[in-house]
Design a protein that fits this description.
about 675 residues; mainly alpha; three-stranded antiparallel β-sheet; two-stranded antiparallel ribbon; about 55% helix; transmembrane helix; hydrolase; transmembrane; RHOMBOID-like protein
Length: about 675
């Protein structure tokens, strides 16, 4: 999960409905439009779409249910309480009994031990080749390492798979899913021998690959094909780039993607448009072929490559060949070596890793910041540890607010007044049923409901002085997918930060960053409403970066930690430049959290911690001089930022003359968030 791919921040527009993550069709205030799709599955125009058969999606939901059931069975077999002994082996969520999770330091994804996964069918080279357990190539794609791992994969499957199944039917999509999963397992087992692997990421990448080949093989019948191709390539590149992080099995991703890409040419070719309209053509004009010549050529070539690839992979695998002997550079697809991590140093999984050879331990996934240990003092020098309760409380609060929003939305009542074509989704939920997917594809309420309950709207904030919307908007979410993505991110990032720095500081960073993101969004986007917590989440990411910088001298492996964190931030920022995603909220939250990190997360220097063992005549300051400088500078920037926005908000354009040239320079130098806007207005006034 590029912390992500999956973190969406949704914008609902008053005119053309620009969203943080989703968009809606021209001018309808009551609905959300579909998110940007790699290629609209229509022939030329909407009128031709009716000729393409539509299926009801049932296989993808069945896959989701099957994965959830398998995970519950895995946790039942794991039975953490039965083998947890000693103070350091306490299970997590013990109220679940047999279903409780392994300790977080063993499996931070809230799941079972690796021994349980091995027992139930995880992928392991030794068992597949030496013990001839080839069935593990398939069973491993139904196992998951934890709740977070499962939720991320199932959200991706729902978001990608349902639309594909509706267009192409359950047979073809089912074949692509299963064969892509096996293809990913084959490539992974050819190159990685010292790890176990679980997860459906190979199958999911296969669906992505089939989307790309489907666009290419049906190229002539699409409109906006270049934009669709670039968007899809961008999404694929980001997800593959995440795979080069430590502890992520990118070979499963690449193998699944290549298999799905070839299967798309074989299974997803569409008839040419004239063939569909042949009944309306003159009788003397006959079409010689249902498909175009290049489609037949791609079909034959892809089928040959698939058969050849699977045969060669199986032969090499069961002969015991090591793929690294035939491809020296391929190891860089799995991980970029650093001083902290060597690709062959430890075991790793698809998405999770295990520590130094202990089969019973699942190690932590890649963290943006190195372990919070002082370089010369070890674990005993760690700062005080707090119990994380605020972050779970934030999650519960967001879920409760979403239920309230859906209760107020009352889709069945509103859909009756809008006409017979307005059918709610999941109507068995009653008042909690969702808006139509064409209006809101994230399974949520209408934009009118969100406006009523406190979404961010420039007009209401500035003209009607409802500044409280800067805060309330970060508690609202546009749908179940939006909510789940943000809550998984806050659990993954916020819990560790709160354990290290306490609830007060992390709570301040979360709330202030959310407001900072709302401020920047309202400065640049006036014709839309905004909901979501991504500004606050980017604030936590920004605080992690500034915490690393301000405590630079007390960290080991600091360069590797910095590069990893910058890589994660850049990937998430890059997602924000996609259509319908409000990146101003992301940038505003990130800048606010970055400054707050210098103010709130500075650590005492190591010698201060050992001052009791030093001579009495040697006095030390608690912090280093550069930490004080960064503290003062960041505090000044924060105060200037918020006060400048308030001044800009309160004064009308007739009063912009009050902003002097000195004020312009101050805004530009000290506040990138809104200095550009204020400088532009002031320069116009001066000129």
């Amino acid at each position: 999960m590029a912390i992500g791919d999956d973190d969406l921040e949704n914008r609902m527009s008053a005119k053309h409905h620009h969203h943080r993550g989703i968009g809606s069709k021209g001018g309808d205030r009551t609905g959300f439009g579909p998110p940007p799709r790699p290629a609209p599955l229509v022939y030329g125009g909407d009128d031709a779409f009716s000729s393409s058969p539509q299926w009801t999606s049932w296989l993808v939901p069945m896959f989701v249910i099957a994965n959830v059931i398998v995970f519950v069975v895995t946790m039942f077999v794991n039975n953490c309480p039965a083998h947890s002994h000693g103070p350091n082996r306490r299970c997590v969520a013990t109220f679940l009994g047999r279903l409780s999770f392994e300790p977080l330091r063993n499996n931070p994804l809230f799941g079972p031990s690796s021994r349980t996964l091995e027992k139930l069918g995880s992928l392991e080279w030794d068992k597949v080749v030496e013990k001839h357990e080839g069935w593990r190539l398939l069973t491993c794609i139904w196992l998951h390492a934890g709740v977070i791992h499962l939720a991320a994969n199932m959200l991706s499957l729902v978001f990608i798979g349902i639309r594909l199944e509706q267009q192409f039917g359950f047979v073809r999509i089912g074949v692509i899913y299963l064969l892509s999963g096996i293809g990913g397992s084959l490539l992974s087992s050819l190159f990685i021998r010292n790890s176990i692997s679980v997860g459906a990421s190979g199958a999911l990448f296969g669906l992505l690959g089939s989307m790309l080949s489907e666009l290419l093989t049906n190229w002539t019948i699409y409109s906006n094909k270049i934009a669709a191709l670039l968007t899809l390539l961008f999404v694929i590149a980001i997800n593959l780039a995440i795979g080069i992080l430590p502890h992520v099995d990118n070979f499963a991703h690449v193998g699944g993607f290549l298999t799905g890409f070839l299967l798309g040419f074989v299974l997803l070719a569409r008839p040419q448009f004239k063939w569909l309209a042949r009944e309306n053509m003159p009788q003397g004009r006959r079409l010689t072929s249902k498909y175009k010549p290049y489609q037949y050529l791609l079909w034959l070539l892809s089928l040959a490559l698939l058969v050849l690839g699977f045969v060669m992979a199986l032969v090499l695998l069961f002969k015991g060949e090591d793929g690294n002997d035939h491809c020296r550079w391929c190891r860089y697809l799995r991980c970029i070596p650093t001083s902290r991590w060597k690709p062959n140093a430890t075991k790793h999984h698809r998405g999770i890793g295990s520590r130094g050879g202990d089969q019973d331990l699942l190690g932590p996934p890649p963290r943006p910041v190195v372990p919070l240990v002082y370089a010369d003092f070890g674990d005993d020098a760690l700062s005080p540890q707090w119990t994380s309760w605020l972050v779970p409380l934030f999650v519960v609060a967001n879920v409760i607010v979403f239920f309230v929003v859906m209760f107020v939305n009352n889709c069945p009542k509103n859909s009756k007044s809008l006409g017979p074509d307005q059918h709610c989704v999941a109507r068995f939920l009653g008042r909690f049923s969702f808006q139509q997917l064409r209006d809101n594809p994230l399974f949520g309420p209408s934009s009118l409901t969100l406006e009523k309950l406190g979404s961010l709207d420039w007009y209401r904030v500035v003209e009607k002085h409802q500044a409280w919307r800067l805060l309330t908007c970060i508690w609202l979410h546009a749908g179940v997918i939006h909510l789940a993505t943000n809550m998984l991110s806050i659990v993954f990032i916020g819990t560790r930060l709160e354990q290290q720095f306490g609830f007060v500081r992390i709570g301040v960073i979360y709330l202030m960053s959310g407001i900072g993101g709302s401020i920047l969004s309202s400065l640049f986007i006036r014709h839309s409403i905004s909901v979501g917590a991504s500004g606050a989440l980017f604030g936590l990411l920004g605080s992690m970066l500034s915490e690393l910088l301000t405590n630079w001298t007390i960290y080991s492996n600091k360069i590797a930690a910095l590069l990893t964190l910058l890589f994660v931030i850049l990937i998430n920022m890059a997602i924000g430049i996609l259509p319908h995603v409000d990146n101003f909220t992301h940038v505003g939250g990130f800048l606010t959290g970055f400054l707050l990190g210098f103010v709130l997360l500075a650590r005492p220097q190591i010698k201060w911690l050992a001052k009791e063992h030093m001579p009495q005549d040697r006095r030390l300051t608690k912090y280093k001089p550069y930490q004080y400088i960064l503290w003062l500078l960041s505090m000044a920037l924060l105060v200037l930022g918020y006060s400048s926005w308030w001044r800009w908000c309160c004064y009308s354009k007739e009063k912009t003359g009050m902003i002097t040239a000195t004020g312009v320079a101050t805004c530009v130098v000290f506040l990138p968030q809104n200095g550009v806007v204020m400088a532009f207005d002031a320069i116009q006034e001066i000129v």
